[in-house]
Design a protein that fits this description.
The protein has 301 residues and is an alpha+beta fold. The chain is 28% helix and 27% strand. It contains 8 helices and 10 strands. The strands form 2 sheets. Strands 1, 2, 3, 4, 5 and 6 form a 6-stranded mixed sheet that branches. Strands 8-9-7-10 form a 4-stranded antiparallel sheet. Helix 1 packs parallel to helix 2 and helix 6 crosses helix 7. The chain is globular, with a radius of gyration of 19 Å. The two termini are 28 Å apart. Pathway: Isoprenoid biosynthesis; isopentenyl diphosphate biosynthesis via DXP pathway; isopentenyl diphosphate from 1-deoxy-D-xylulose 5-phosphate: step 3/6.
C-alpha cells in the first residue's frame, strides 16, 4: 500500500502588529511582530513516490512548478536529508493570495512537517526551521508551531500566550506585492524597538494603541482600495480599530466572541450593498477563530 497523508492543514496567520525597526546591509528589513494563527487554512495531501520525483497533483494557476513554495520545500528537505523518496502533493487553497496571511509560507511549512513524517527523515523542529528560512521569512513560524513574538527578519521567535479572540478578516479586491511595499522609499524603517522581556509572562499585549503596522501607510497610499475599505469597515463597525495583516491586502478586526465576529461580518456585508458603485468589492469577508497553536505542533520535537 502506498504511504500517504491526507487532509493535512496549513493555517493562515495574522500580524497583530508589525514594526520595521531597521535594515541590514544586505537590504533585508529588521522587524518586530506578533504572529497569531487563525483557523482559515489550506489543505494538503501527500503520497510517497519511490522514483524520487516531486510532482504536483494539479497545477496552481499562475505559479510555475519551480517557483512553487510547496515544491521548493519538498526539494529542500530531500536535498538536506539525502532521501531517495519522492512525493505527489495536492494543495487545496482557501487562504487568499496577496493578502498578508502567509498562505504560501504556511503551505511550505506543512510540506516540511508532513514529508519529514511521511519519509521518516527524522529532522528536529530546529533543523526544519533552518530549512524553512531560505524559503521565506514567514515560513519558520509555521514550523515553530506557536503564536510568537518575532524579531530579526522574522526568524527570532519567542512563544507567547494570547487570549482567545475572534477576527473578522476582510480582503478588498486587491493583491499587494510584498517586495514593492518594502522597497518603497517612504516606508518608516526606524520604529523604536519594544522588548518582550518588559512584559510579565502571559500578559504580553499587542493590541494596545502603541502598536501598529508600519506598512499600512505605504499600502493605503499605493493601493487606495485597501485604505478605502479600511475606512468603510471602521464606520460600519462603530469606529472599531481596523488593522492590516503583513503587507496586506487583508484587513482584520478583533472581536471577543464568535457572535460578535459573525455579527460584524453581517454588518460589513450589508454596508457594502449600499456603498457607491466605485468602491472595490470584497474577495473575503469572514469570521476566524484565533488558535492557541499550530494544528501540527506535535509533528516535530
Amino acid at each position: 500500500m502506498t504511504a500517504e497523508l491526507r487532509d493535512v492543514p496549513a493555517p493562515a496567520k495574522i500580524n497583530l502588529f508589525l514594526h520595521v525597526v531597521g535594515r541590514r546591509p544586505d537590504g533585508y528589513h529588521l522587524l518586530q511582530t506578533a504572529f497569531r494563527f487563525i483557523d482559515l487554512q489550506d489543505t494538503l495531501h501527500f503520497r510517497a513516490r519511490p522514483d524520487g520525483r516531486i510532482v504536483r497533483a494539479y497545477d496552481l494557476p499562475g505559479v510555475p512548478e519551480d517557483a512553487d513554495l510547496v515544491v521548493r520545500a519538498a526539494r529542500a528537505l530531500r536535498q538536506a536529508t539525502g532521501c531517495g523518496q519522492g512525493a505527489e502533493i495536492g494543495l487545496e487553497k482557501r487562504i487568499p493570495a496577496g493578502g498578508g496571511l502567509g498562505g504560501g509560507s504556511s503551505d511550505a511549512a506543512t510540506v516540511l512537517l508532513a514529508l519529514n513524517r511521511l519519509w521518516g527523515t527524522g529532522l528536529s523542529r530546529h533543523e526544519l526551521m533552518r530549512l524553512a528560512l531560505p524559503l521565506g521569512a514567514d515560513v519558520p513560524v509555521f514550523v515553530f508551531g506557536r503564536n510568537a513574538f518575532a524579531e530579526g527578519v522574522g526568524e527570532e521567535l519567542t512563544a507567547i500566550d494570547l487570549p482567545q479572540r475572534w477576527y473578522v478578516v476582510v480582503q478588498p479586491d486587491a493583491s499587494v506585492p510584498t517586495a514593492d511595499v518594502f522597497r518603497a522609499p517612504e516606508l518608516t524603517r526606524d520604529t523604536p524597538r519594544v522588548k518582550i522581556a518588559d512584559f510579565p509572562r502571559g500578559t504580553f499585549d499587542p493590541y494596545g494603541n502603541s502598536y501598529r503596522n508600519d506598512l499600512e501607510n505605504v499600502v493605503f497610499a499605493r493601493f487606495s482600495e485597501v485604505g478605502r475599505i479600511s475606512a468603510v469597515l471602521a464606520q460600519a463597525l462603530g469606529g472599531a480599530r481596523v488593522r492590516m495583516s503583513g503587507s496586506g491586502a487583508c484587513l482584520f478586526v478583533e472581536c471577543d466572541t464568535k457572535a460578535q465576529a459573525d455579527g460584524a461580518v453581517d454588518r460589513i456585508a450589508a454596508t457594502m450593498q449600499v456603498q457607491p458603485s466605485g468602491l472595490p468589492a470584497l474577495r473575503v469577508n469572514l469570521a476566524c477563530a484565533g488558535l492557541d497553536a499550530h494544528p501540527l505542533l506535535d509533528w516535530a520535537a
